[in-house]
Design a protein that fits this description.
The chain has 173 residues and is mainly alpha-helical. It has helices at 7-35, 39-49, 51-59, 64-80, 83-135, and strands at 138-139, 146-147, 155-157, 164-166, 171-172. The protein starts with 6 loop residues before the first helix and ends with a strand. The structure holds zinc ion. Zinc ion (ZN) binds next to loops.
Length: 173
Amino acid sequence: MLAETDPGLVFAVILFGLILWLVIGGLVGASIGRERGRTSDGVWLGILLGPLGWIMAGQLPRTPRAEALYRRKVELELEKLPAEEAEQRARAEKQRRLEESERRAREEAARERRIKEEQEARRRRRQEEERARRRLAVTCPACGFENRGMARQEVVTCSKCGAKLHKQAGSQI
Ligand SMILES: [Zn+2]
């Protein structure tokens, strides 16, 4: 039975399955991502990871616009619910909004921290460059000229006035 299976047919079935996976994965991912304001993220997650991608798309943080739309939708729904249920739902929504704003605050703090770290790293790099530059420079006490690129020698000759300089002390010898 298995031996009689046409390889072309097997290939067609696999190809069809693959296309189906891509189309369904992408479409479902798109509709889940759209609700979070992230349609294209949803499409890619659905295509690459299938149902796992759908779950991930549903966990994406909403864009500010999607969040505003969601809040509006919830408020409209609350108006239609019986009082007790609405109250419960409103409490849950309040909690959700609190968590959402905390999440945004954490993100903002992390972003600021990253910027500070980058600035600090740049500052340190500049400081290090300045130190390296100083190490290589000898100011001549006789004429005040800053002899740069004097590198490793202990004793250097001022390129302006010809005085012999001791590099470490920057003094004339
Ligand atoms: Zn000099």
